[in-house]
Amino acid sequence: xxxxxxxxxxxxxxxxxxxxxxxxxxxxxxxxxxxxxxxxxxxxxxxxxxxxxxxxxxxxxxxxxxxxxxxxxxxxxxxxxxxxxxxxxxxxxxxxxxxxxxxxxxxxxxxxxxxxxxxxxxxxxxxxxxxxxxxxxxxxxxxxxxxxxxxxxxxxxxxxxxxxxxxxxxxxxxxxxxxxxxxxxxxxxxxxxxxxxxxxxxxxxxxxxxxxxxxxxxxxxxxxxxxxxxxxxxxxxxxxxxxxxxxxxxxxxxxxxxxxxxxxxxxxxxxxxxxxxxxxxxxxxxxxxxxxxxxxxxxxxxxxx
Length: 305
Hints:
Blueprint: H1 9-14, H2 16-20, E1 42-46, H3 54-65, E2 69-75, E3 94-98, E4 101-104, H4 108-119, E5 127-134, H5 139-144, H6 146-156, E6 161-166, H7 174-199, E7 210-215, E8 228-231, E9 239-246, E10 252-259, H8 268-273, E11 276-282, H9 290-300
Parallel strand pairs: 1-2, 1-5, 2-4, 5-6, 6-7, 8-11
Antiparallel strand pairs: 3-4, 7-11, 9-10
């Protein structure tokens, strides 16, 4: 599985102004990151569950109540598992059902691309928030997540982004998860306030770096308080494995099973299982670190076309 490059989160949050002036080992975004405003932020809010899903509506209400100027630009229909998909159709349908709400008949990436190009044309938002959605986006789930994909699309355009997910490894009933979205969004407001305070006159996050935030479901009703916050990385395991069965008529049946391995120490899965909030930095590409580059260089040394 391809794994996103991660940066030390403590250094990221404490030293964002300094890091913003360095050259990160990621692809250059289309626009340079802008300085965070001293006051409330202009936020593009997206998701993968659809523009009218409970998570994004709760996020809109909570972020607006915190004083931010929030605009929903999200998929028209449920796009869970869409990952970083971008449409290549000649046309795309977009609806504007109410003020501050745009519904794009496409993926989360399509929604963010449309939002940046049209809704926020010429004046990019200060932050893109994707979520909160049903279920965790940890380990291999993050790689294929539409929630994470929406954040990645923003990072590709040089806009700071946070992916928000609510859920644990076990799947509670939907009502419990919706209840847990309250604590998720309370934490998101605190995190955004922290980023804004740390940024001072610089960008909210270093160039090309976003945050993947996974909030556990705590308590029988989902309204419990998380045990803490952990700076994590994406656990390398896949979690989900397809099981194919030959129906004997030229078709195959597929069932997706959870293949849970021991959690990597310090990873996002370990944190969520322990009822802690996992916060993992991520980049919008598949680049790895300098050690991996050295391995590749040694591998091809002396090879000729």
